[in-house]
Design goal:
The chain is an alpha+beta fold. It folds into 4 domains: about 25-215 and about 305-420, Alpha/Beta hydrolase fold, catalytic domain (Rossmann fold), CATH 3.40.50; about 430-610, Galactose-binding domain-like (Jelly Rolls, Sandwich), CATH 2.60.120.260; about 620-645 and about 690-710 and about 730-880, 3-Layer(aba) Sandwich (Rossmann fold), CATH 3.40.50; about 885-960, Alpha-Beta Plaits (2-Layer Sandwich), CATH 3.30.70. Helix 2 (about 130-140) packs across helix 3, helix 9 crosses helix 10 and helix 18 packs antiparallel against helix 19. This is Alpha/beta fold hydrolase.
């Protein structure tokens, strides 16, 4: 009998060392991915054992290895499960690393894999999950393992793909599991292998897809790869990273004698056994039925549902870290979304992490290490109570619009963190941006037998797809396309978009595939992740003049559609990865407008694209709403303060107006600020800013940037010198300050009011007419959508920051001053803010940005003033400060043709290229970096690095060092 987890767990022993869990190997059809062992690992003892499990005809021996840490005290345990086609050897390096960090680690080959006996049941609770419970019994009997109670080990389970599903099902069926970290795995094998992304969504999360009970479109290639691996002989399994040894014969070792006797008397049964290889008979029969018919029968569904966590998620109370890949045509983001919703529904802690990889493409080394740290932190906290609380937030790759063939240039290793997974467990529902797509009703031909078929991603071979240029092949006549207008601002899609179609078919049924393309201004197309959404439609209209409205959920992606690009919804009738109808047909496909009646096609519809506001978790702070109250109180006493200042500082007032004030909106002349204790915050600061410039005030913390801005706004008085705004002396109460908008030191928003009400209140306090506020433009800058009318206390730090910046822009001031405006903003929001500031300055206004982030100053500003220790140490354009403005260092991937790259660069106007000690260098004389990079990529040259040869950071460090 299984022991029950106690209500109160023992406090971790003070002497226990901090632990970290490894990111598991996840099995791909072409092999498995493992992490290298840590350098300088301490000695770890291992014990090999054959562990019996099951009884009767289902009895097996599991090949196990126990890793024992170099410690005298009992320690928590971790069970590492391998991916499909792997074995205990696949996770050996990870186990050694964990043991070196203080965990007792148990690895094993699942039944039917490696040298374990038995047959594959696809994580059947009666077999594979029962095996896991047997292994927990084994751990509970070891004196090296810390216990929660008699027979109850302190244990976590982690695994990728096949091993990830085992972790989920194990936590559901055995209450002794204390924490799990499943990766790139499934929610429902039925909806994974027979998907149909049609119907209304029943959830407010970003990647929810319809979990239809009806039959979907059979994922033919992926299912074939699975069955091929499980049926393979030992030699093929060895090649795939699986196993070999005693359990790899054509008739698996450990096959019950009674079954062998029956097959000897029944040649057909013997043939079935040979065909099924290492699979259990019911699994094999289910596959053969699906492969021959392409349909989901009740018998097939029963086998798949039994091995799916979907029906038992409400039993899981072990804290769960769900890791899913954005490049995964086998188990998409919707599978993790459904798992997160099901587990969190009963209050179990759930954290969701997406990464740029998956079954179709391995992650980069940086991403792999980050995921390894994520799993480590999860087990440290939930098994030992050590380290930082990982929380229950949401992380995803920073959206990028560049294709996968560019590699690490695209910044895929950068992540964005949000406080919560939208729509999960009481969190705010997902927000969606509406993008209008348009196009006429179009005929779509499906060929007899489904040939030729469109080519998107080759399942499991994303690297091959990238090597071919990441291109897709759509067959003319077999698709309908609907485009947006060129985007006026970037759209960052984080999750699964939705759109309504109007479809008719002569037979009343149709098989379609919906995709969301990124179309560049030059017509080049990118299919993010190579992902498609299958649509199995039945009972639809046969009359093209009265089509059926169909709600479609597009693939879950993380992608940035850049300004000037087009979002294209493409609906095709074929895809080579899926089973297709034999009969030829012509479908009618159009758009169903939000305002059109049901069954009526329209020329346009709304594509609802999910967006997520991320924030830098390390930059969390308080809203400090009392700042606004203090400002409002100060406004009420403004006359008294101005009068007092006027009387006490009359001798310092300069009344003349400088004649060039309109051309020089801001001028500092010999400004010094010293305090009574002798500290000099700013010393003899002089610089000027001209109309239309975006000037960056750059310096390390303590350089005097904020003090300078506070003097500019009249919040504090300079000890000496003059500050001029549009030629007028700036100071407390100076009328010229009405032409200045500022955001310095905190958002100053009232938490109980909405974002809109905060903006209205702020403008009312200025006493200026409401029509002068340009409220709509400011709200557009905030970019919060419907959230602008929610209370600020429900905002993330980044949302508050955006409202505060919009507040500074009320009235469209001629001089805009922003202090650290990107604090709390995620990378997409930072990029959008850059665009806003550039456009603002292009109107002839002037922008001052103070920051210690060199990369932001370099990308945002046209001019720079560098400060250190209260003094100006340099001033000029970014190019002047950097000193090597047009020089770019180009790093090529291994094997790339350097001579060809030089020839491509030399063929571009204003570009010269050649070799240098630090690599290939391109000199850009007026050419845009983006155009040069695009030319290399279009020529099929793999670029791994494309950076200025000397960055602002280099110049800044040199200048600060000199000062």
């Amino acid at each position: 009998m299984r022991s029950l987890r106690g209500l109160v767990r023992p406090r971790p022993r003070p002497g226990a060392r901090a632990a970290a869990a490894a990111l598991l190997a996840f099995a791909l059809p072409a092999g498995s991915f493992v992490l290298a062992p840590p350098a300088g690992a301490a000695e770890v003892r291992t014990e090999e054992a054959r562990v019996p499990s099951g009884s009767g005809e289902d009895a097996v021996e599991l090949d196990t290895t126990l890793y024992l840490p170099d410690t005298d005290e009992p320690a928590p345990a971790v069970v590492l499960a391998h991916g499909f086609g792997g074995s205990k050897r696949s996770v050996a390096d990870d186990a050694a690393d964990l043991a070196d960090r203080g965990y007792v680690v148990l690895t094993y080959s699942a039944r039917g894999f490696g040298e374990s006996t038995g047959r594959i049941g696809l994580n059947d609770p009666r077999y594979e999950i029962a095996d896991l419970s047997r292994l927990l019994d084994l751990l509970a009997g070891r004196e090296e393992v810390e216990l929660d109670a008699a027979g109850d080990p302190r244990v976590g389970v982690a695994g990728g793909s096949y091993g990830g599903a085992l972790a989920l099902l194990g936590a559901a069926y055995d209450e002794r599991v204390d924490a799990i970290a499943p990766q790139i795995t499934w929610h429902s094998l039925t909806t994974s292998l027979f998907p149909s992304q049609t119907g209304e969504l029943a959830a407010d999360t970003v990647a929810a897809v319809p979990q239809t009970e009806a039959a979907g479109v059979y994922k033919r290639l992926w299912a074939g790869l699975f069955f091929g691996i499980g049926s393979a002989s030992g030699g093929l399994l060895d090649a795939l990273g699986g196993g070999g040894g005693a359990g790899s014969a054509a008739l698996p070792a450990g096959l019950p004698e009674q079954l062998l006797e029956r097959t000897a008397a029944d040649p057909e049964a013997a043939e079935l056994l040979l065909t099924c290889g290492r699979f259990r008979i019911e699994v094999c029969e289910a596959y053969q039925t699906a492969a021959s018919t392409g349909t989901l029968t009740p018998e097939v569904a029963a086998v798949l549902d039994r091995s799916s966590p979907a029906g038992v998620l409400d039993r899981i109370d072990a804290p769960t870290l769900l890791v899913q890949g954005t490049q995964d045509s086998l188990f998409g983001l919707g599978q993790a979304d459904a798992n997160a919703r099901g587990i969190a529904a009963d209050g179990t802690p759930v954290k969701v992490v997406w990464f740029a990889g998956g079954h179709d493409a391995p992650s980069s080394d940086v991403q792999a290490q980050d995921l390894r740290d994520q799993v480590a932190g999860w087990f440290d906290w939930h098994l030992r109570g050590q380290g930082e609380d990982p929380g229950t937030g949401f992380e995803f790759p920073a959206p990028t619009g560049l294709g996968a063939t560019i590699g690490r240039v695209q910044g895929g290793d950068q992540t964005v963190a949000a406080a919560a997974y939208p729509g999960l467990d009481g969190a705010e529902p997902a927000t969606r941006r509406g993008v209008t797509v348009s196009g006429p009703v179009q005929p779509v031909v499906t060929p007899a037998g489904g040939t030729p078929a469109a080519l998107t991603t080759v399942p499991g071979l994303g690297a091959l797809t990238s090597a071919l240029g990441g291109a897709t092949a759509e067959i003319p006549g077999q698709f309908a396309a609907f485009d947006s207008a060129p985007l006026e601002a970037p759209v960052e899609v984080v999750g699964a978009s939705t759109v309504d179609l109007a479809v008719a078919s002569p037979s009343g049924s149709a098989t379609l595939f919906a995709k969301l393309y990124d179309v560049g201004p030059d017509g080049a197309t990118t299919l993010p992740g190579g992902l498609v959404a299958p649509l199995a439609l039945t009972g639809i209209s046969t009359d093209p003049t009265a089509p059926t409205r169909v709600s479609v959920t597009l693939p879950g992606i993380v992608h940035r559609f850049e300004t000037g690009h087009t979002m294209r919804v493409l609906v095709s009738s074929t895809d080579q990865a899926f089973a297709l109808p034999d009969e030829a047909a012509v479908y009618s496909v159009g758009l169903a407008s939000d305002v059109a009646p049901n069954g009526v096609a329209a020329g346009e519809a709304t594509l609802a694209a999910p967006e997520v506001d991320g924030r830098d978790e390390s930059a969390a702070g308080t809203s400090r709403w009392w700042v606004l109250l203090a400002v409002l109180a100060g406004l009420g006493l403004l006359g008294w303060l101005v009068a007092r200042w006027w009387g006490s500082r009359r001798d310092r007032r300069i009344s003349e107006v400088q004649p060039d004030g309109e051309d020089v909106p801001l001028r500092f002349t010999g400004v010094t600020k010293a305090y009574k204790d002798g500290f000099v915050a700013v010393r003899d600061l002089s610089f000027e800013v001209r109309r239309g410039q975006v000037l960056g005030l750059l310096g390390p913390n303590g350089a005097g940037k904020t003090t300078s801005l506070r003097m500019l706004m009249g919040l504090i008085r300079p000890t000496d010198g003059r500050i001029s705004v549009f030629g007028h002396a700036a100071g407390p109460g100076a009328p010229v300050l009405s032409r200045l908008g500022s955001f310095v030191e905190g958002t100053g928003l009232q938490p109980h009011l909405s974002g809109r009400d905060n903006l209205t209140l702020y403008w009312a306090a200025t006493g200026r007419p409401a029509e002068d506020a340009h409220m709509d433009e400011a709200i557009a800058v905030a970019g919060l959508g419907a959230a602008i009318d929610r209370p600020v206390r429900r905002y993330s730090q980044g949302m508050r920051q955006r409202v505060a910046i919009a507040q500074a822009m009320l009235g469209l001031p001629d001089l805009l001053v922003l202090d650290e405006p990107t604090n709390g903003l995620d990378p997409p929001q930072i990029h959008a803010m850059r665009e806003v500031l550039h456009d603002y300055a292009a109107t002839g206004r002037t922008v001052i940005v103070s920051s210690h982030l060199l990369s932001e100053i370099e990308q945002t500003c046209s001019h720079v003033v560098v400060m250190a220790k209260g003094q100006k140490i340099a001033q000029g354009t970014v190019e002047e400060i950097v000193g090597a403005g047009g020089s770019v260092l180009v790093g090529l991937a291994d094997g790339a043709d350097t001579d060809r790259a030089i020839a491509v660069l030399a063929g571009l106007p204003g570009v010269t290229a050649g070799r240098a000690d630090d690599g290939l260098v391109a000199e850009l004389d007026g050419a845009r970096r983006a155009d040069v990079l695009q030319a290399l990529v279009s020529a099929g040259i793999a670029v791994e690095q494309f950076t200025p040869r000397r960055r602002l950071e280099d110049a800044f460090l040199a200048l600060v060092g000199e000062s």
